[in-house]
Amino acid sequence: MKTICFYFQIHQPFRLKRYRFFNIGRDHYYYDDYSNEEILQQIAGRSYIPANRMLLDLVNLYKGRFKVAFSISGVALDQMEVYMPEVIDGLRELSHTGNVEFLSETYGHSLSCHYDPVEFRNQVKMHADRIKSLFGQEPKVFRNTELIYSDEISDMVYDMGYRKMITEGAKHVLGWKSPNYVYTSINQPKLKLLLRNSRFSDDLSFRFSNYSWSEYPLTADKFISWIASTPPEEQVVNLFMNYETLGNIQPSHTGIFEFMKALPRFAFDRGVGFATPGEALDLYKPVGAASVPYPISWADEERDLSAWEGNTLQKSALETLYSVSERVRLTSDRRLKQDWLYLQASDHFYYMSTKHFSDGAVHSHFSPYTSAYDAFNNYMNVLSDFIGRVKAQFPDSVENEELNSLLLTIRNQELEIKQLRSELKKVIGSNEANLVVKEKAPKNPK
Q1: Which residue of 68, 139, 228, 288 could cross-link 104, Cys pair, CB 3.0 to 4.6 Å?
Q2: Contact criterion met (CB below 8 Å) for 67 and 263
Q3: May I ask the CATH class of domain 3-290?
């Protein structure tokens, strides 16, 4: 039986306010609260909330036969807790059904896998802890930011304890092979991979309401017939997309919700089932290894990292940001650490893209800036202030190794002081107890 594997990404960055050169050193708050709240509320009202209700109805209607998965960035969860906690409530209700899986990713939706392996590991751990605390699930499947993957990244993911991962079924990697199978990492044969079927996923994400598309209108019956007609030996069709596809990218008037409601019925009629990524990777055996020497992603036509580091502006911003990563990890300043996470969001670099044609139109659609240069200047002004705050705590004149040594000495001294205080309390407590015993003891008669 063929299986459909639905996965939805939920991510919203903390958008930056207009931050001028003259703000540097004076204003340490970087975010456009008004835009962040307004955009999240609009998207939640059009997409997240009605989509949550619809998926819950489908799971209950088909008594667990219909299943989906989510990957939600930590920065999106932070925003939801402040502006739209009802979205989290809806996702928690979906989690309680036992038929919805939550995946692991980087907390800051960052590119740390490519620039800072230590930060990458820290963010993945932080995100997994947050998912467990909110939804009661310990993520078993890893999904990197924007489905970024390479052989080198597979080593890092495997070392973190993951044995399951999802990524893009890039044509320049697969060649003649189909994405509708389970594969493994060529470096780590025990790390299983699910690959996105870009054709079917993009039919829903981008072509669904396109009047000029030769297959318009797309009905649930037609879509399932395409999936059912794939070669019988092909096992699983992975439909990975942005959750905003439901109601925002494809507005409700396009019929996207009615399409989704009808999809399971036509699937079951044709013998097509549903599974979460974890279940699909348990259900099917790998057919071979996928060799990915250079990073791939699900972004743009190239399916590589050029959406975030395709020009000198982006590379300069990324290199400047990660140049202070070791010093940020040394600090105990919670505000500084929070800004560090939010400034790593891949969106900031996506806005700096100078691509043209269809890819350029997509970048411009999501960007709050008038141009890539405007995005770069605003981000670098913020980053200059942020780095100034870092250097105020850890000056350039002190080397990283020296800082580590000093902090280690301080921490050891703190532990020693705590231990001495604990021992002192025990001694004082023991002396007080002895005094009480002596006072209560009967006095010897003379």
Answers
A1: 139
A2: no
A3: alpha beta
